[in-house]
Design goal:
Layout (H helix, E strand, L loop, with lengths): L5 H27 L18 H6 L8 H29 L7 H9 L6 H14 L9 H23 L4 H8 L4 H29 L3 H4 L8 H8 L7 H41 L1
Helix pairs in contact: 1-11, 3-6, 3-8, 3-10, 5-6, 6-8, 7-8, 8-11
Length: 278
């Protein structure tokens, strides 16, 4: 058996420390969420139970956890849909150079380098100056799109830069209109990438704090609610909430990945059937 060089073990140890640093806090919160009924916010644990998960579903003395969850879920879905639609339209538009396209591109991604809290403050000020009500579904939606759209645009630009235009030419040769070509040729081919953009849009919105801080209005989203709970909740119920939200996030990611896998298997099967038909 070939002996591995010492550098291999050094890099393996470094990677292990990186993973521990990345997931250690989440794992710690997950463990502490199973504290016994008399447990506190720190180690050592005083028993093991599901008490704090049960308590989470009881009426809380402070906050509106499940209302905040519903708002974050609704806002995440809104951001996801808008991000996918706008990203696809922009990707199609930027396939051809037009006057000012470079400037428009840099303006679109500029919000990635601007501090998030300044974006939140700016959007809030604009709504105030226009006399519009600050609300999570309007100003909150706008501020979060400044975060999700640049990622969606960059993904779509990368996808269309590698897109084989011969598929579209073949469709047009068969008499397909521009819309039919997009609907029946382009969109099915880029569907896995669209799911990636959708996943980016939803997850970035679901856990966004800074850009929502000054634009959510009177009703908190879940990240804002959790932040508020850290100042007045002194029991492991907040850890139980963190554990459940983490599990929910992983379930969403798993659902998207499973959908991509099913689409890939279906495409492979259709390709195999078409080959047999030839």
């Amino acid at each position: 058996m070939e002996k591995r060089p010492r550098s291999f073990y050094v890099l393996a140890a470094f990677f292990g420390l990186f993973v521990l640093f990345l997931y250690g806090p989440t794992i710690t919160i997950g463990i502490l969420s199973f504290q016994g009924e008399g447990g506190g916010l720190t180690f050592p644990m005083r028993g093991v139970s599901l008490h704090w998960f049960r308590d989470l579903f009881q009426e809380q003395a402070v906050g509106d956890i499940w209302g905040a969850f519903r708002r974050s879920l609704a806002l995440g879905l809104l951001v996801m849909v808008v991000t996918v639609v706008v990203s696809v339209m922009a990707g199609l538009a930027f396939r051809k150079r037009f006057a000012g396209s470079a400037l428009l591109f840099y303006l679109a991604i500029a919000s990635l380098v601007i501090p998030s809290i300044l974006i939140s403050l700016g959007v809030g000020l604009i709504f105030n100056q226009l006399g519009l009500k600050i609300h999570w579904a309007t100003s909150g939606l706008g501020s979060q799109l400044t975060w999700t759209l640049p990622f969606g645009l960059l993904i779509m630009f990368a996808v269309f830069n590698r897109f084989d235009k011969s598929y579209e030419e073949a469709a047009r040769d068969q008499g397909a209109t521009a819309w039919q070509t997009i609907r029946y040729v382009v969109l099915p081919i880029i569907a896995p990438s669209l799911l990636g953009v959708a996943l980016f849009g939803f997850t970035l919105s679901y856990d966004e704090f800074a850009r929502t801080l000054l634009t959510a209005g009177s009703y908190n989203t879940l990240p804002l609610e959790i932040f508020g709970m850290t100042t007045n909740v002194t029991t492991p119920v907040i850890y139980a909430l963190g554990t459940l939200t983490t599990v929910f996030s992983f379930l969403i990611i798993g659902a998207f990945l499973f959908t991509v896998w099913v689409m890939a298997k279906r495409r492979a099967r259709h390709g195999s059937d078409a080959g047999k038909g030839v």
